[in-house]
Amino acid sequence: MNFTKPKLSAIATGVAIGVASMAAQAADQPTLPTAGAQAAAVFTGGATVNGGASYQSSVPAGDPADLVATIKPAAGDVGQTGSLIAVLEVPGIGFFNLLSGGIWVPLDLANPNLQPFATKTLGAEEEVTILDDLIGTDTNLTGMTLNAYVGYYVGDVGTLSYSATPASMAIAAPPAAGCPSNTSALENVDFKNKPVCVLTGRITADTHLTDNNSYLLDGAVFIGENTPGGDRTKLTIDAGTYVFGTTGLNFLVVDRNGQLYANGSREKPVIFTYEGDDTADATTSGQWGGLILNGNATLNVSGGTAEGEGSTGTYGGSDDTDSSGALTYVQVKYAGQNITPENELNGIAFQGTGSGTIVDYVQVHNNSDDGVEFFGGTTNAKHLLLSGNEDDALDWTFGWRGKAQFVAMKQNTISEHCIEADGNSDNNDALPRSNPSISNMTCVGDASAGSESGFRLREGTSAALSNVVIANLNDYSLDIDQTATFTAAGGSIGALNGTLTMTNSRLETGAIFSDSEGDLFAVGDWYGAQSGSDIGVTDLGGDSGLVNGTALNAIAPAVPSDPWFDQVDYIGAIKDETSDWTAGWTFSD
């Protein structure tokens, strides 16, 4: 098939359609329709400010952004010698053809002599960096939308397959001075050397928090309505933005038809904190409320919906693919304010959120209750750092069935469990049963503390835990409670064929197991029967104290085959200093 002037013209006139159809935010590169010789080829692409943790149709003018694409050749072309093509349109200037060495040359639409930027043996996926670390304010491109098309051919250009609509990157204009819509100015007050804008009440129009201000939560702030369906109200937060509360019950709720897009980057995370952030220390916690996301995914509770703690709204529904937005490179610090003495908010509560919700590179630090709790739903999470949280680092209940990978938990002197896992306290056999799949997790205690524990699995939960490291606790490493939980594991040591497993894991030498009267079998026997799991040296170190040493890295992992999981060659959350994903964007006291 020839890539002729009429086809280029058709692509150019289709740009607006391509931009409009692209999702505003996505965990994966948006898929681009295929045209050309091979209908089975797949093209994806989009703009990112955080190395691909999320993709955005619009990027801030002052942040480095990448425009990238992936070519997945048709199966019959994989292993063949092929040529890769990239074309960039700069509106008002023209089309450009990418050559080898990153050189762009003008492309004459009257005589489009397309040239490849690489000719090679085609793999199953070919990653293409179209623009790297482009800053709109440095290139006079603010306000423009750049559009890129990628393609490949085997043999000659007449067999070209290509993306029929572009991977697009709109570069926003620099934010105007003053407070954005749906916020109000707090006169003569700065936070982090920026003017303060106030969010209050229920916000039902799309709102964009740019990083030229800091933003104060005044009481309980709700995004969207609590009725499922209809247009979603979006709260977008740019990289480097602070959102804070005064000391007290100030918190942010993203309701069932709201969405939160906190688009942080490694260099500029989005930070939720409190007014005393600059003077906080290792003992500071519970100063403001926290972050709550109410979704429309299924729960295992009677009636299918539940009420959030502290009047944070109804959650739950029937849409397990629901999206409550995206949290990428986000810190939540010093939250967990008491609603009552027995009722504290979590750092982040994912309440009935679905698998469309993106959670990647998120830290919760020094929360006075749980760091992160999943109340049912199907949300997945990667790269969680849960540090210094006073109750449980990670908690789940009401039928959570998501996935998680690279979870690092570091306890402080008054923390309780690394994990407290529940099914349903009212009905331990309620369906859908809590049954997450979690790989590459590290739990580190503070042995000087009073009563730190590892994993407490109870109330009928199932879980597929793999590649776990637990160390430096002064109470127990593992506990299983309630008959339904033992039954989920298989009911007896002779028949461990159930859905509660902990494979290819390492507990430190001298690990303690918690047994109770009425247990169907000894917890230590359950662990000892797990495939690839043992007790031995847990040589953790590095600046974070969470990095594997040589003994841990000698243990063979078994990562779930599900393509959502990264196929890594180590157990635990962090292999070594060079691959420490917590470096550069997280906080430590």
How are the secondary structure elements laid out?
Layout: H1 5-13, H2 15-21, E1 25-26, E2 31-32, E3 34-36, E4 42-48, E5 55-56, E6 58-59, E7 65-72, E8 81-90, E9 94-99, E10 103-106, E11 118-121, E12 126-134, H3 136-139, E13 145-153, E14 161-163, E15 167-171, E16 184-191, E17 194-203, E18 207-209, E19 214-223, E20 233-238, E21 242-245, E22 251-254, E23 258-263, E24 270-274, E25 290-294, E26 306-307, E27 314-315, E28 325-333, E29 338-340, E30 343-344, E31 348-351, E32 358-365, E33 372-375, E34 381-387, E35 394-397, E36 403-410, E37 417-421, E38 437-444, E39 453-457, E40 463-471, E41 478-480, H4 483-489, E42 500-503, E43 506-508, E44 513-514, H5 523-528, E45 534-536, E46 540-541, E47 547-548, H6 550-553
Parallel strand pairs: 6-15, 17-19, 18-20, 19-21, 19-22, 20-23, 21-24, 22-25, 23-28, 24-28, 25-31, 28-32, 31-33, 32-34, 33-35, 34-36, 35-37, 36-38, 37-39, 38-40, 39-41, 40-42, 40-43, 41-44, 43-45
Antiparallel strand pairs: 1-5, 2-4, 3-14, 4-7, 7-12, 8-9, 8-11, 8-13, 9-10, 13-14, 13-15, 16-17, 26-27, 29-30, 46-47
